[in-house]
Amino acid sequence: MLYTMAPAAQSSLFWAFNENNTPCRCCNPSEAIEYGMWTCSASGCYWIISDGPVASWADIAEEDEARLTDAQIKAKAAAAAEETRLRILTAEASRMFNYAEEQKILNMKGKGQKRAIGKVNEPCRWLYCDEKAHASQWTVNAKGERCAPVRMALTGAECWAHEYHHPKTKALAKPHTCKRLHPGEAGWLDIWNTNRTHKPSVPTKTDNFFAARLKTQAW
Q1: Which of 29-38, 94-103, 125-134 has the lowest mean pLDDT?
Q2: What is the pLDDT of residues 161-205, one digit of tens each?
Q3: Confidence bin at 1 (pLDDT 50/70/90)
Q4: What pLDDT digit, counting tens, does each position of 127-143 carry?
């Protein structure tokens, strides 16, 4: 016999006992009912037998919620908030890692053992972002991303392509894939601590000539 469901059981896991409207029309109640459930031998589907009106999952959830104490409700809300917070931190960590990897692809120069990050003689702009500034001072770029205002002096902000603290574990990551300079790197100028716009003077041919003579000059 072809398996068919009764209309009342088509969209529910529950069946309010009714001899005239069984979950399926291919099974005999004496064979299908066992342990408080109706199991269809043809399809393997089952329905939980209810003595009263069939409840929905929403009704069951509301009943469970109503049984909770105030302390349990607060604990449940706190757990949900913590889960959301951790998901946000995980997503942020993924963004940081992907940015560093992208910069490695863009900034890597040379071949073989000489392959390295090509450096530009200027400070990294991300170090001057004031992430503690009031929300009213933040702007939105062409990608729809919120951007902190940029200051003249270092703000303590980190460059994800150089060194940053993992938002979840707080461990220091050191991808070192940024092409611009950071404090502690060779070529960093102290004046950049307070003036990001400072441009280093470019040595002239004469300067290079005298520099070479001084290196070989015997004193």
Answers
A1: 29-38
A2: 999 999 999 999 999 999 999 999 999 999 999 999 999 886 554
A3: very low
A4: 999 999 999 999 999 98
Residues 36 and 44: beta-carbon distance below 8 Å? no
CA distances from 111 to 105, 116, 132, 154, 178 (A): 13, 8, 41, 34, 18
- The two counts, helices (H) then strands (E), for the chain are 4, 10
Domain locations in the chain? 7-64, 72-205
Q: How far is CA 203 from CA 186, 191, 214, 217, in A?
A: 17, 18, 15, 20
In whole angstroms, give the CA distance from residue 22 to residue 67.
Answer: 32
Task: Please name the amino acid found at residue 13.
Answer: L
Cβ partners under 8 Å of residue 150, min gap 6: 125, 128, 129, 130, 196
φ, ψ for residue 214 (rounded to 5)? -65, -35
DSSP-derived secondary structure letter, 46:
E
Q: What is the pLDDT of residues 115-131, one digit of tens each?
A: 999 999 999 999 999 99
The percent of residues above 70 in pLDDT, for the chain, comes to 79
Residue 60 structure tokens: 């069951």
3-class secondary-structure state, position 31: helix
* CA-angle at 167, arms to 91 and 101, nearest 5°: 65
Mean pLDDT for the chain? 83
